[in-house]
Design goal:
The protein has one domain: von Willebrand factor, type A domain (Rossmann fold). α1 packs antiparallel against α2 and α3 runs parallel beside α4. β3, α4 and β4 form a beta-alpha-beta unit. It is built from six helices and five strands, in the order αββααβαβαβα. Strands 3-4-5 form a three-stranded parallel sheet, with helices on both faces. The chain has a two-stranded antiparallel ribbon with strand order 1-2. By secondary structure, it is of the alpha/beta class.
């Protein structure tokens, strides 16, 4: 889990640095912690995180949906291993609803400590089938990928 937190914190810091972009960072397991106030400092974010035990991706994505104000101008980047610990239907329903509303949903697969993708490809594919985009890359590669997806 720590690898995903580091990945998410660095990615959020990159977007937080763009003044024209409003960025939220929410970390999750079976609960959700909104650490948006620490987005500019990935180290501070990592130091505050005390999650562990289970994964409810659908619940986290549903929380992200509550933060959407203008769907057509919103990108939700979900950094996860896609190994859903809760019933997968909430994840798929929320994915479908976000995409149908106009949100661009990008799933960024978790990387292990050697920066190799480590994720449930079946669930990721189900999300792709609903209209999400899923990729596995380092934060440095993310900017180019996002640019390709929002053209």
């Amino acid at each position: 889990m720590l690898d995903s937190v580091i990945h998410a914190a660095v990615t959020a810091a990159i977007f937080f640095g763009l003044k024209q972009v409003r960025t939220h960072l929410c970390l999750f397991d079976t609960s959700i912690v909104d650490v948006t106030e620490d987005c500019s400092d990935p180290v501070e974010t990592i130091m505050k995180v005390q999650l562990g035990g289970g994964t409810d991706i659908g619940k986290a994505l549903a929380y992200a949906a509550t933060l959407v104000e203008n769907p057509r101008n919103t990108i939700v980047i979900l950094i996860t291993d896609f190994f859903e610990g809760a019933p997968v239907q909430q994840l798929l329903t929320t994915t479908k609803n976000l995409i149908e509303s106009g949100v661009t949903l990008l799933g960024l697969a978790a990387l292990d400590e050697q920066a190799k993708p480590n994720y449930d490809r079946d669930i990721a594919q189900q999300m792709v089938n609903l209209g999400a985009s899923v990729g596995a890359m380092t934060p440095g590669e993310l900017a180019e990928w996002v640019a390709q997806k929002i053209r």
